[in-house]
Amino acid sequence: MKSSMKDKVKGTFHEAKGKIKEMAGEITDNPKLEAKGKVEKIAGKAQKKVGQVKKVLGS
Questions:
Q1: Is 30 helix (H, G, I), strand (E, B) or coil?
Q2: Closest alpha carbon to 33 in 24, 41, 42
Q3: CA pair distance 26, 30, nearest whole angstrom
Q4: Where is the CsbD-like domain (predicted)?
Q5: Could you give the number of structural domains in the chain?
Q6: Residue whose C-alpha is closest to residue 44's, from 4, 2, 9
Q7: What is the residue range of 25's domain?
Q8: Could you report the per-residue pLDDT of 5-54, keeping only the tens digit for each?
Q9: Dihedral of the CA atoms 14, 16, 21, 23 (nearest 10)?
Q10: Distances in Å between the alpha carbon of 24 and those of 12, 29, 56, 58?
Q11: Less crowded by CB within 10 Å, the N or C end of the chain?
């Protein structure tokens, strides 16, 4: 699997995991868990973008 595809897959996984943590934090009224989820979701989006850039550049 190409590096760009790995980044996209990992990014999608982290984005989904972050969304779950964020929702769990909202449901349990746990602001720390909610914040961790938001951060992980943003990191996942960034990793997906890195994968897209790598694909364009051919890396």
A1: coil
A2: 24
A3: 6
A4: 7-55
A5: 1
A6: 9
A7: 3-57
A8: 999 999 999 999 999 999 999 999 999 999 999 999 999 999 999 999 98
A9: 160
A10: 18, 8, 36, 38
A11: N
